[in-house]
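Materials and Methods. Structural model of HAD-like protein. The 246-residue sequence of HAD-like protein from Thermothelomyces thermophilus was retrieved and submitted for structure prediction as follows.
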Amino acid sequence: MSKINTILLDCDNTLVLSEELAFEGCAELINEIAAAKNVPLEKPFTGESLIVEFVGQNFRGMLLSLQKRYGFPLTDAELEDYVRREEDVVIAKLKEKLVSCPGVDDVLAKLAASGEYKLAVVSSSALRRVQASVDKVGQSKYFGGDIFSAATSLPKPTSKPDPAIYLHAMEKLGKKADECVAVEDSKSGTLSGTRAGIKVIGYVGPYKEAEREKMVKVLTEAGAVIIMHDWSEFEDCLAKVQRGEV
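The predicted structure was written out as C-alpha cells:
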C-alpha cells in the first residue's frame, strides 16, 4: 500500500461554511427562472429546501435536473448565462459573510507545516467561486494553483457524483488513488471520490444536529470509509486510513 501523501478537500461546507449562503442565492435565481419559464413549482424554493434536494450538486447540475423534471426549454446560451449570473450572486454573498468551518484552519496549518502532504481542493463549484471562498477566509496559501473545479477545470463541465474531477486532479498532481485521501460532506461528493478509487473521510460537522445521524448513514452508504464529526478528529481518521484499518 502506498503512503498517503495527498489530501483532496471538498470546498463547500468542508473548508468553508458556504452552503447556506450559496443556496440562498441559488434559490432566488431558480425562482426567477421558474417564473420566466412558467414552471409550475408547488411553492417557491428557499435556500433550505434547495439544500435538502440538491446538496453537493453545482448550479448547472441543479438546473438540468429541474429541466428534466419539469420539461421546460433551456438553450445552451441561456444555461451559460444563468450559470454566470448565479456565480456573481453567490460570490457577492460569500465575500460578505463567509467563514471557515470550525477547526479546519488549525488542521490545514498543521498539515502544511509538516511538509508531508500535498493539499488540493476538488470541488463541483465554479473555480471563481472556490477561489473567492478560500481567499476570503485566508486558506488560499495552502493550495496555490491546486484548485480543481468540475464546473470549470474539465474540457466538458460536469458535477459530482461524476468521478471525472477527482480523476483529473490526480492526473494533474501526478498522484495515484492509494496516495490520496478525500474529505467530503455530501453524498454526491463521497460517491465521486469513491468512484475514482479514493478513500473518503465523510464530514458531518456542518449539518444540524437532527440531520447528522442520517448523514452518517448516507455518507457511509455512499462509500465513506470513516466519519468525522469535527475537524479535531481529522488526524485520528487519517491515521486509521493510513494504517489500513478502514
